[in-house]
Amino acid sequence: MKRQPTIQDVATLANVSTATVSRALNSPDRVRETTRDAVQQAVQALGYTPDFGGQALASGRTNTIGAVIPTMDNAIFARALQSLQEELTTMGVTLLVATSQYDPEREEQQVRALLSRGVDGLILIGQARAARVYELLEGRAVPYALLWTTAPSGQQLSIGFDNSAAAAKLVTQALQLGHRRFAMIAGITKGNDRARARVDGVRATLADAGLTLEPPYLVEGSYDIEQTVGIARALISLPEPPTVILCGNDVQAAGVLKAVRQAGLSVPRDVSVLGFDDIELATAVDPALTTIRVPHRRMGRMAAHLLIGWIKTGQRPDSVQFDTDLIWRASLGPPPA
Amino acid sequence: MKRQPTIQDVATLANVSTATVSRALNSPDRVRETTRDAVQQAVQALGYTPDFGGQALASGRTNTIGAVIPTMDNAIFARALQSLQEELTTMGVTLLVATSQYDPEREEQQVRALLSRGVDGLILIGQARAARVYELLEGRAVPYALLWTTAPSGQQLSIGFDNSAAAAKLVTQALQLGHRRFAMIAGITKGNDRARARVDGVRATLADAGLTLEPPYLVEGSYDIEQTVGIARALISLPEPPTVILCGNDVQAAGVLKAVRQAGLSVPRDVSVLGFDDIELATAVDPALTTIRVPHRRMGRMAAHLLIGWIKTGQRPDSVQFDTDLIWRASLGPPPA
């Protein structure tokens, strides 16, 4: 790369001090408009971008938040990140996102990479990960928030909801309609505390009703429509097929709808299908999915405010737990007679 | 933050030189396994993350690629990014992603933010953006690749496909089935050269057949299912409704399917619906969408290889243009009699 223009170059061109340049860039409301414009013009003319190292030294911050999410596929995390980013943007903070593909080792690498780029804080999804990742974050005193989960100990900032209780709502509703033969296609529970909690919620609620959920009626699979089609085909071909299929999320539920359609059967007449998340896909499919509405946008916005608050004050805020709603749509009906 | 552990701390704990630590981290195949393990243990024990500044000075690189994409919603860019990241991971390079919400100013901010974090190269979507962004990149000699597009001049590295020719394929197919009354719900074309090119391809092909496409049969809208439902409702309520509706992408096409369903009409019996992208949604909906298969994964993989090659050699590689396929599924049929 060529020599990067420095803050001194900008100051010279704009005919102001470097302190003024810094102020114009970091606290634009604290300088006059003409000064701000002059600095802005010099910045653009020179192609200046604030130097990471210098900025970090000056303010102790990089004004960057990192997020490591499991995947960008299927828009599962997209809406929360969108809201997170919109809030951060209004605060002048940049969001950088990396993905782990649900792989704990890769997640750890991404955390280290973001830390070495000097992020001020981190967003992680869920709670299950190697202790050394938490030790790294605590040791470096980097503020971080866990989304989509409720951290049990009160020792961490979590911004999420009770996955187990949410899944239980779906079961309760199906029981009230008279369903007794349940199946569940869960997400891969290894390293995924959200998927695990949803299975636990389903099984506990069924147990209260004197029912069990065991293989082959309980299967784990990835959050992928086509892979789920195969799993669902096997379920509806069982000698005693389930009358309702719970899914780890809406993506899997869309796969079940497809498998039922391909088998010449009908939802919910022959089998009911339940999703989780209420992403846009839930109403794009036909019939629309009965599902759990996850507070995507509220989690995103709240994460921005709490994490930035922590960074500014040095005080870890209290965790936040949101309620979830069951959204009843056409994919749930009574069991076949 | 507390004092960050240094490479010297790691070297001391692992009982090796700092040069060895650096080699173990950057070229693990060049050190013995026992040394590598010792360094790795020290890294984890100390919570060491390579210091951005030091690493950049040492090798001139940060081993980070930045990408600015319009949105994480709807998985439009997810599959390409996934492949891009998988390839980069095998090369030991981290991908950081920021989103612009289709806003040119925000895109520019994100580019500057990524540059100031010291990325080695950048991935951008499409070609339409302020000249000063390109001047900034050229001035700083930062390798960058434009995806989803074909840069016209040969002055830039583009890895994409011909959006106009792809859209034309859909029209040609519909014309051959006997369709004469076309409508198109396009993406917002302002600042989006891909959306613009698709409209151009459609209109040019229609013109060759002696047909025109003007409002109210040509409408722009955002890539959002619910907003598209409203637009589609108006189209199918026209005194002379279209017999086929082309869409800017599959997300919009899913919205059209929904509107047609809500109106008590049937696809493709009453109206055919055409998508673009072939994301997973295209086969999750019923009927499945006839659409253009965009080479998501090939673009992602190719971008990783060409951009890293450029960074390593300093030579800008030639642009790559992929073919696109029309995928014929149930949403396209002959016009109503």
Automatic annotation (TrEMBL), chains A, B:
Keyword Transcription carried by entry: yes
Domain of life: Bacteria
Gene3D superfamilies: 3.40.50.2300, lambda repressor-like DNA-binding domains
PROSITE patterns, per database record: HTH_LACI_1, HTH_LACI_2
Annotated SMART domains: HTH_LACI
UniProt KW keywords: DNA-binding, Transcription, Transcription regulation
Keyword DNA-binding: yes
Matching InterPro entries: HTH_LacI, LacI/GalR-like_sensor, Lambda_DNA-bd_dom_sf, Peripla_BP_I
Gene Ontology MF: a single term: DNA-binding transcription factor activity
Domain HTH lacI-type residues, every copy: 5-59
Name listed for the protein in its UniProt record: LacI family transcriptional regulator
Organism: Rubricella aquisinus
